[in-house]
What we know:
By secondary structure, this protein is mainly beta. 11% of the residues lie in helices and 33% in strands. The protein is built from one helix and six strands. The chain has one helix at residues 63-79; strands at 34-40, 43-49, 89-97, 106-115, 120-129, 138-145.
Amino acid sequence: xxxxxxxxxxxxxxxxxxxxxxxxxxxxxxxxxxxxxxxxxxxxxxxxxxxxxxxxxxxxxxxxxxxxxxxxxxxxxxxxxxxxxxxxxxxxxxxxxxxxxxxxxxxxxxxxxxxxxxxxxxxxxxxxxxxxxxxxxxxxxxxxxxxxxxxxxx
Length: 154
């Protein structure tokens, strides 16, 4: 997919799809609903398009689906930094739903590791319309615990 409308612009942020380092590879999970656009250490950007089975009874994205998307996207961002590229386990997910996420419209999902640590990774995700990325629809904070620790420094 084109990164022309990605906020912040992927090229300006120094992002490129499937870099030499990190966990991302050309066979990273991709689907017609959630496509990997760019990955760099500590950050992953996706293009999201919802379909009828993602919707609640109001015809907009179900909050649980958006929380799951945030979890999946932060997992890739964490894997690019974590010891042995582990994905970690969720300890504290939190989503704020600021505007409706609608079917048939493209959204940019920007997942970043805000503070990496040996045991905990603190992440944030924003989901915003692809064509108006300054209008954030979902803001998520997520803590992941790493189960495998690097050897102690000598």
